[in-house]
Amino acid sequence: MYYWTNELWRLGYLVGGLGLLGWVLGEPGWGLAVGLGLFLFIHLRHLRELYVWLTYHPGREPPVGSGVWGDLFDRLYKYQKSQRLTQQRLRDVIRRVQESSEAMRDSVVMLDSRGDLEWWNSAAERMLGLQTRHDRGQHITNLLRSPRFVDYFNARDYREPLTLPSPLRDDLILQFQITLYGDDERLVMARDITRLHRLEQMRRDFVANVSHELRTPLTVLSGYLETYAALTEDMPEEQLPPRWQRGLTQMQEQTTRMQNLVNDLLLLSRLETDHRLEQESRVDVAALLEQVAADTRALSEAGHVVRIETDTHRGLAGIEQELHSALSNLAFNAVRYTPPESTITLRWRPWRDGAALEVEDNGEGIDPVHIPRLTERFYRVDQGRSKATGGTGLGLAIVKHVLLRHDAQLEIVSQPGKGALFRCVFPAARLYLPEAGETPNAMRSTSD
């Protein structure tokens, strides 16, 4: 405000002085015109100096100006200097980020909001085959054309990483992780997990081979034990001493337990390694629930009440044998880990956009601290009680892999003293409506 007031006084002095001079000379109008023209000339000259400075010599010292122009030149110079410092700091930060990214062994790719390539490090060139000359500005899916990656990229659900072979080499296994940042931009990171993948494959092969090799000696051992047990029953006079009889019974129990463990290991190994679903068919969920309920009642020796609730007539597309195995594991766990005469409910009902198979009990429940680890192999909430019930510790791991093969998820809801609910959530794409001639799932509730 001070400078504008000062500038008005300068205008007044200049115009007034020349106007007075013109009045003395008998031409007051010309005096005023010359004063205004001179004032305008001074401002136009300063404006030209400002234009030349900013256009051709922005790095030099500002021109010398008087009045408001001098202050304007000084302020622009200070602002320009601070901007240069800020830009230099940003360039240093970007340079350090790029240098650190270049030092990484993982691929780093920056995408804009449309998914076009903006920048990547040298590891991305080695792992993904990106070329600076040709690929900048290309859409990521034009270069990584795997249908699984395209679906993963478009789904925008990046909570879990994606494992794929490199587009350059099938023997190079990469784990992709995408992060959203800024204005809907994406950061794609790819890590070489070939060694871990091979170790995991070796572990799976080892478990499968050992389990397969154990089946034959266990079958032979079980057969001889059954023969000896039958002989002692048929010929009382040849009864074994009580100590030997007790040992024979324990050997039979442990052999049966090992056979169950081997069978579960083989099933889990097949689920992990076989990615083809060639035997998919339309599964009558109501009939499946009836079969599992019958097996559950046969397993229970403590008077458990098994109920069936069907709240939708839609069927489920999948492999019936695998779905039966998953649901049986959940129901059998409910029998093993709930008190006598507890109620177990098998339920098929709509859930969100799809439907859910549920196994619910009113037993002792599970502490929420254990829930995230329940699907791990051999994880047991109570080691002593789990071994006493005859479980192998692989049931929920089998359930998890069966659901993954059917595009489903396992949700566990439980509190101590409030029972447990295991919910298998299937997407709408897995459901179907019975056609003419097919028997729909009856909407009913039964118990026994």
From TrEMBL:
Transmembrane segments: 20-42
Catalytic activity: ATP + protein L-histidine = ADP + protein N-phospho-L-histidine
InterPro entries assigned to the protein according to its UniProt record, in alphabetical order: BphY/WalK/GraS-like, HATPase_C_sf, HATPase_dom, His_kinase_dom, HisK_dim/P_dom, HisK_dim/P_sf, PAS, PAS-like_dom_sf
Subcellular localization(s) per the UniProt record: Cell membrane
Domain Histidine kinase: 209-430
Short name of one Pfam family: HATPase_c
Coarse class of the protein's main subcellular location: membrane
Enzyme class: transferase
EC assignment: 2.7.13.3
Keywords: ATP-binding, Cell membrane, Kinase, Membrane, Nucleotide-binding, Phosphate transport, Phosphoprotein, Transferase, Transmembrane, Transmembrane helix, Transport, Two-component regulatory system
NCBIfam families documented for this protein: phoR_proteo (TIGR02966), PRK11006.1 (NF008235)
Function noted in UniProt: Member of the two-component regulatory system PhoR/PhoB involved in the phosphate regulon genes expression. PhoR may function as a membrane-associated protein kinase that phosphorylates PhoB in response to environmental signals.
Protein's recorded name: Phosphate regulon sensor protein PhoR
